[in-house]
Design brief:
Elements (H helix, E strand, L loop, with lengths): L1 E6 L2 E4 L4 E9 L7 E6 L6 E6 L5 E3 L7 E6 L4 E6 L8 E9 L2 E4 L3 E6 L1
Parallel strand pairs: 2-11
Antiparallel strand pairs: 1-3, 3-8, 4-5, 4-9, 5-6, 7-8, 9-10, 9-11
């Protein structure tokens, strides 16, 4: 089992920045790709960004150029640096991690961007 705990969410004004963290614990060895998804009220959960264990990244078009995903394989932690935030970025942000053909999810952290 892998446990994921997100942190770093909060309230920020449009144009501001936040940095989310997601720490993996438990059987966290050999974790593969890690990523971030988000879910706004009344909407489906959507992909934000992902990073492989080797550092290859992929982003949703909506966040490309504004968000940066990174990871520390020693700390088993993935980060999401969010700049130039917009009100439409308001959502609960979830991290996930792949290991041994299973996908694990965190509980989520709220990000609210005021206009």
């Amino acid at each position: 089992q892998v446990q994921l705990v997100e942190s770093g969410g909060g309230l920020v004004q449009a144009g501001g920045s936040l940095r989310l963290s997601c720490a993996a614990s438990g059987s966290s060895f050999s974790i593969g790709a890690m990523g971030w998804y988000r879910q706004a009220p009344g909407k489906q959960r959507e992909f934000v960004a992902t990073i492989t264990s080797g550092g290859n990244t992929r982003y949703a078009d909506a966040v490309k150029g504004r968000f940066t995903i990174s990871r520390d394989n020693v700390k088993n932690t993935v980060y999401l640096q969010m700049n130039s935030l917009k009100p439409e970025d308001t959502a609960v942000y979830f991290c996930n991690a792949a290991r041994s053909f299973s996908l694990y999810w965190g509980q989520g952290t709220q990000v609210t961007v005021s206009s």
